[in-house]
Amino acid sequence: MQKLLQKTSFVLLLLVSGLLYAQDPVLTISCPASADDWVTITYYADNGCTPDGKTPVAGLPYIAIHSGVTIGGSGWQYVKGWNDSPDNITATKMFPESGTNNYKITFIPREFYGVPSGENPTGINCVFNGSDNDPAPWASEGKDPNNNCGDFSLAFADCSGTSVGVLNQGAIQLHNYPNPFTTATQISYFTDNDGEFASLKVYNVQGQLVKTLTAANHIAGQHYVSWDGADSNGNLVAGGQYIITLETPNQVSTAKMLIIR
Questions:
Q1: 40 beta partners
Q2: Where are the beta strands (DSSP E) in 120-208?
Q3: Which residues contact 170 (CB under 8 A, 6 or more apart)?
Q4: Using an 8 Å Cβ cutoff, are 210 and 231 in contact?
Q5: DSSP string spanning 54-96?
Q6: Is the pTM of this model over 0.70?
Q7: Within a 13 Å sphere around the CA of 182, how many CA atoms are in the beta-carbon half?
Q8: pLDDT at 237
Q9: Which end of the chain is less crowded, N or C, counting CB atoms within 10 A of the terminal residue's CB?
Q10: 220 or 43, higher pLDDT
């Protein structure tokens, strides 16, 4: 009985902390979310659906979000796709978290889709494809397994996405590209609150500090920092694995980087 109570308490703790999903996550949107908030969308490609005749997007170095917004109950308005213009190839790219097939993108919907100030989107419709990774247009695709392998729909009102539950906006989004890299990599991270202090540091696998990339107050939103593979004295570090750590007053997030010399 005691073991059963301990197990039950542990499961309840996971539920309360948001670490346990009712089922494997497929798609999440950060909260709070609206057309004028920074949102992070994460597609868990391993759990998505691949339509007949297509190949999976999981495993690609990057994918693209093909999406539009819902306005007045009508979906797929102000559509933005990677093949609409050369600029969109970059704007719609989603890169995976290190060692996973979980692809992320962060943006402000009104700016991203070009929605006029007089219109009020209530959500996002989307699918995912291999972008310019595909040997032919739309050769690979990821869709919603809970909608008969149809389009995804994310509602701003509940931020619940598709079959996943809420992903708190306070969660830190951290990744770098390219990874592995030889000369330099760009690190992307997200902070929730204006004036929030955040430090970004690189450590070796022995836990020794290699370099502090930033330690300052931030405005809310997406941030980018480049690292040239040099330590705090300006000397290039040896090839191998390094750990990047992003720390705020409330959370710590880490990611692995690999330098090839």
A1: 106
A2: 123-129, 141-142, 152-155, 167-168, 174-177, 185-191, 196-204
A3: 192, 250, 251
A4: yes
A5: -B--TT-S-EEEEEEEEETTEEEEEEE-TTS-HHHHHHTEEEE
A6: no
A7: 1
A8: 95
A9: N
A10: 43
Q: Are strands 141-142 and 74-80 parallel, antiparallel or unpaired?
A: unpaired
Tokens of 170: 């306070």
Name which of 92, 91, 77 is nearest 130 in CA terms. Answer: 92
Amino acid symbol at 94: M
How is residue 146 written in tokens?
Answer: 């809970």
Q: How distant, in Å, are the alpha carbons of 60, 100, 177, 192, 249 from that of 56?
A: 9, 14, 21, 32, 39
Q: Is 110 helix (H, G, I), strand (E, B) or coil?
A: helix
Q: What pLDDT shows up at residue 24? A: 61
Token reading at 89: 């190839």
| Structure tokens that stand for 48 in this block | 């998505």
**Cβ-Cβ contacts under 8 Å for 22 (sequence gap 6 or more):** 163, 165
pLDDT in tens, 24-79: 678 887 765 789 887 778 899 998 999 999 999 999 999 999 999 999 999 999 99
Three-class DSSP category at 18: coil
With 0-12 / 13-18 / 19 or more C-beta atoms within 10 angstroms meaning exposed / middle / buried, residue 89 is middle
Pairing mode of beta strands 27-31, 39-44: antiparallel
Q: Is 232 exposed, middle or buried (0-12, 13-18, 19+ CB in 10 A)?
A: exposed
Alpha-carbon distance of 127 to 125, in angstroms, equals 7
- Does residue 260 contact residue 240 with C-beta atoms inside 8 Å? no
What is the CATH code of the structural domain delimited by 174-259?
2.60.40.4070
